[in-house]
Amino acid sequence: MSLQQGFAQLKESLQQQIIGQPHLVERLIISLLADGHLLVEGAPGLAKTKAINALADRIEGDFKRIQFTPDLLPGDITGTEIYRPQQQTFDFQAGPVFHNLILADEINRAPAKVQSALLEAMAERQVTVAGVTRALPELFLVMATQNPIEQEGTYPLPEAQLDRFLMHVVIDYPDAAAEQQILRLARGEALQQPAADILKLAAEDIFSARKQALRLHMSEPVEQYIVQLIMATRQPAAYGDDLASWIEYGASPRGTIALDRCARAHAWLHGRDFVSPDDVQAVLHDVLRHRLLLSFEAEASGMNANKVINQLIQRVAVG
């Protein structure tokens, strides 16, 4: 079985458990392939926790859920030094961040110090405690969630931390047909019906798949298309005065790199050996949504990030 077939089976298996959220499932796998972190925004009960838990069950890695609360401390994330009186020494007690898959649940409910502790882990793949730097596992993915309904007592993520996320995915309620499937699935789980044997992907397979995705052919015009989309967010006046009035700050070079990697992962996941403009457009909203800082004029005009990105797709020429 090829790696692409293995990931196709992984996607199909996850969609059988995470019903009505195919977009979330695909973006989770793309994040795994592109070696990046995922920010998911959606109302409670939309299987955000279950999605990454199900992914953890299907790869050879460990999973940890961190519930972010206002009283959380940085050491609760990274770990801390514990004094052993018998030996008169300090031993490092590793925190939950030293796992392969991390669910940072309601990340915006924790104060800035805790968010910055996770920031180093996400960006540098390491943690520094008591002056000692410790490397995190090579296979490391953070999926953070935000609840868009209740914003009281929250600490909005600063732009610097938002930029560390590969993608920002917004999910909505499933339709009626999917809701009925969810009902049947929940009933079967409550009856403890035996589950089918789950095929697990090894970490080495994931690393090999990442290399295959990075080696996909990307023509010069597609590469230029990616660059021009990012440049349009920084110099929007070249594409219209209205666009210039809507965008206050554009995407950083991290956005360019993320768009390239996500487009490659999308193409590879769909069985292609080249990257097309369609792959770029397919992931563009999730890659740029959190990287655009819109003006007050945009909000007053009823524009949001999705609508601005739609305008970018219409105005930036392909090739």
Automatic annotation (TrEMBL):
Domain (ATPase AAA-3): residue spans on this chain? 37-167
Q: Which residues form the ChlI/MoxR AAA lid domain?
A: 247-311
Under the heading PANTHER family, the entry gives: MAGNESIUM-CHELATASE SUBUNIT CHLD, MOXR FAMILY PROTEIN
This chain belongs to which protein, by name? Answer: AAA family ATPase
Annotated organism of origin: Bacterioplanoides pacificum
